[in-house]
Amino acid sequence: MWWKKLGVALLLVVASSQYVQSQQSKVLCYYDAANFLIEGLGKVSLADIDTALPFCTHLVYGYAGIDVETNKAVSRQPNLDLDTGKGNYRAVTQLKTKYPSLKVLLGLGGYKFSEPSIKYLTLLESGAARITFINSVYSLVKTYGFDGIDLEWQFPQNKPKKVRSKVGSVWHGFKKVFSGDSVLDEKADEHREEFTALLRELKNAFRADGFQLGITVLPHVNSSIFMDIPAIINYLDFVNIAAYDQQTPFRNPKEADHAAPLYELSDRVPGNNVDGLVRQWLTSNAPASKLIVSIPTFGRGWKLTSDSGLTGVPPLAADGASSPGPQLQSEGFYSWAEVCAMLPNPSNTALKGAEAPLRKVGDPTKRFGSYAFRLPDSNGEHGVWVSYEDPDTAGNKAGYVKAKSLGGIAISDLSYDDFRGTCAGEKFPILHVINITVARIEPALPMCTHLIYGYAQVDPATNRLSPRNASLELDAGKGYYRDVTSLKSRFPGLKVFLSVGGNRDVMPKGIFQKYLSLLESENARKAFIASAYATLKTYGFDGLDLAWQFPQTKPKRIRAWSGQLWHSFKKLFTGDSILDPKAEEHREQFVSLVRDLKTAFQADQFELMYTHLPHVNHTVFLNVSQLKDNLDYVNVAAYDQQTSVRNPKEADYFAPLYELTDRVPGNSVDGMVNVWSSQGMPLNKIVVGIAAYGRGWKMVEESGTTGIPPVRVEGPSEEGGFTQTPGFYSFGEVCFRLRNYTALSPKSMMDPTLTNVEDPTGRFGPYAFRIPTAKQNGVWISYENPASVGHKAAYVRAKGLAGVSINDLALDDYRGQYFEEKFPIVRALLMNSKPG
Ligand SMILES: *[C@@H]1O[C@H](CO)[C@@H](O)[C@H](O)[C@H]1NC(C)=O
Ligand SMILES: *[C@@H]1O[C@H](CO)[C@@H](O)[C@H](O)[C@H]1NC(C)=O
Ligand SMILES: *[C@@H]1O[C@H](CO)[C@@H](O)[C@H](O)[C@H]1NC(C)=O
Ligand SMILES: *[C@@H]1O[C@H](CO)[C@@H](O)[C@H](O)[C@H]1NC(C)=O
Ligand SMILES: *[C@@H]1O[C@H](CO)[C@@H](O)[C@H](O)[C@H]1NC(C)=O
Ligand SMILES: *[C@@H]1O[C@H](CO)[C@@H](O)[C@H](O)[C@H]1NC(C)=O
Question: How buried is 187 (Cβ within 10 angstroms: 0-12 exposed, 13-18 middle, 19+ buried)?
Answer without folding.
Answer: exposed
